[in-house]
Amino acid sequence: MKFLLVFDFDHTIVDENSDTWIVKCAPEKKLPNGLRNSYRPGHWTEYMGRVFVYLGDNGVKEDEMRRTMTTIPFTAGMVDLLGFIGENKELFDCIIVSDSNTVFIDWILKAADFHKVFDEVFTNPAAFSSTGYLTVQNFHAHHCEKCPKNLCKRKVLKEFLDKQLQRGVSYTQIVYIGDGGNDLCPVMFLKKDDTAMPRQGYTLEKKISQLAQDLSPVECSVLAWSSAIDIMSYLKLLIKE
Length: 241
Description:
Pfam family, one: Put_Phosphatase
Radius of gyration: 18 Å
Strand order of the largest sheet: 3-2-1-6-7-8
Binding site for Mg(2+): 8, 10, 179
CATH class of the domain at 2-15 and 74-125 and 146-239: Alpha Beta
Family: Belongs to the HAD-like hydrolase superfamily. PHOSPHO family.
Distance between the termini: 11 Å
Number of strands: 8
Oligomer: single chain
Strand content: 15-25%
CATH topology of the domain at 2-15 and 74-125 and 146-239: Rossmann fold
Structural class: alpha/beta
CATH architecture of the domain at 2-15 and 74-125 and 146-239: 3-Layer(aba) Sandwich
GO molecular function, one term: phosphatase activity
Organism: Spizaetus tyrannus (black hawk-eagle)
Largest sheet: 6 strands, parallel
């Protein structure tokens, strides 16, 4: 009996958007209007690439970025939840699927000593160039019409499950924990024994209830959360059953 926990990162594990949090490093803690207005829907990664060039051009170094990123707050109850999962790793496989980047997630998890809780992190690859600029790339290419150009979370989840099956690992239940519009695609892939846990009052919850109103509800169970303690209570019930 093993459960797969799939976490989004921004506004789910951390209570902010890691990509906008980095702006605290910019001169006057803000971006010029021209740069801010250069974002095109579905092309977030390219936009962040321009933000990182701007930070580099303004002399923002890796150390300062790391210091800033490790002050990002965790969502209420999340520290307790991750501690609980860490203590029960024999029951839970745990992955992150996020539109953030490898550098930010790695810094944040390691600073809080939570990196061991997660088996794999699927996010946009980032690295510092020889000139000290942070660079970011799209996670993969895909053909999903619903998702941003750089990441279809359903594709990531499906490929992970296929790979696990080849290793002889299958899951009693998948629990998907997220908040955003790009979490809907993987939630629609879940089966009736699985559970989607959208964050209360955020886009994912609204999109799931809109589907129910349109009489095409998702197949899985839906359980909203406002504190990660709600998620922990659910997981405790699961392992009791």
